[in-house]
Fold this sequence. Notes:
By secondary structure, the protein is an all-alpha fold.
Amino acid sequence: MPDIPAKPARPPEAIENDFTDLMASRLPITVAREKFERLWDEANSIAARLVSTEQGKPYLVLLRRMHEAFENHYRGVPQRNPSGGRLH
């Protein structure tokens, strides 16, 4: 089976644009959190690979901004688990 080349890492600006769109949306918290987690995982994976390089810094900065913005935006919004019960 031939080796499939890895997908190139998206630049932090592209991930940040998707995050900005997410924050501007009015999605329910559960859907927004799922999308946030996917963006977070993508940025975190790239940051982990590049952590000791100059190219990793923008991803680390992005992760911090994403975390702060998301938590501040959804602070106090009750979350619900898939069965409809309150998580916290």
